[in-house]
């Protein structure tokens, strides 16, 4: 019997669940959800990013990003001061509250990455990410139907 399916899916699910739990636990002190981590992280790294760009960077759909940004704006973490007709194309910025939270979030992300990086050498990590990218791209093609397998 081929155990690759079970091994691959279980490992990916364990990693995903662990990341989700870390995000949820760490965001609780800000009164936010784990899903907000990536948005605040990318807003911090590139001040003035649009919702459209966030969709791309976070690999999230427009509706999810829009809901999250509405919440972050209502809670005083982000603002949009653009005169664009379409808010989706307007640059968003962090408020002082958002910047303070994002600085802590970036520090947490860096700490988690440092902690997990110790198990691989730089070369092993480079190969791992190259392989994970290749697998991800292939799975996306299969999921879209352009890489049918049967």
Summarize the structure in words.
The chain has 150 residues and is mainly alpha-helical. Helix content is 67%, strand content 6%. The chain is built from six helices and three strands, in the order H-H-E-H-H-E-E-H-H. It has helices spanning 4-27, 36-45, 51-58, 62-74, 96-117, 122-144; strands spanning 49-50, 78-80, 91-94. It has a three-stranded antiparallel beta sheet.
Q: Sum up the overall morphology in one term.
A: globular
Write down the Rg. 18 Å
Unreliable spans: none
Q: Could you describe the largest sheet, including whether it forms a barrel?
A: 3 strands, antiparallel
Our count of helices gives 6
Record the strand order, biggest sheet: 1-3-2
Distance between the termini: 20 Å
Mean pLDDT: 89
Number of strands: 3
Q: What sequence of helices (H) and strands (E) makes up the elements?
A: HHEHHEEHH
Helix content: 55-70%
The share of residues in extended strands comes to 5-15%
Could you say which structural class the secondary elements and strand pairing correspond to?
Answer: mainly alpha
Short description:
This protein has 150 residues and is mostly helical. The chain contains 6 helices and 3 strands.
């Amino acid at each position: 019997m081929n155990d690759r399916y079970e091994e691959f899916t279980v490992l990916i699910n364990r990693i995903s669940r662990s990341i989700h739990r870390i995000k949820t636990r760490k965001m609780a002190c800000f009164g936010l959800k784990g899903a907000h981590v990536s948005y605040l992280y990318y807003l911090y790294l590139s001040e003035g990013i649009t919702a459209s760009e966030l969709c791309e960077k976070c690999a999230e759909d427009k509706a999810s990003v829009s809901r999250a940004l509405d919440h972050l704006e209502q809670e005083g973490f982000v603002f949009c001061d653009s005169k664009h007709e379409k808010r989706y194309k307007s640059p968003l910025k962090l408020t002082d509250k958002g910047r303070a939270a994002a600085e802590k979030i970036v520090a947490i992300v860096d700490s988690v990455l440092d902690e997990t990086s110790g198990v691989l050498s730089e070369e092993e990590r480079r190969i791992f990410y190259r392989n994970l990218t290749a697998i991800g791209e292939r799975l996306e093609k299969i999921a879209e139907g352009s890489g049918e397998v049967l």
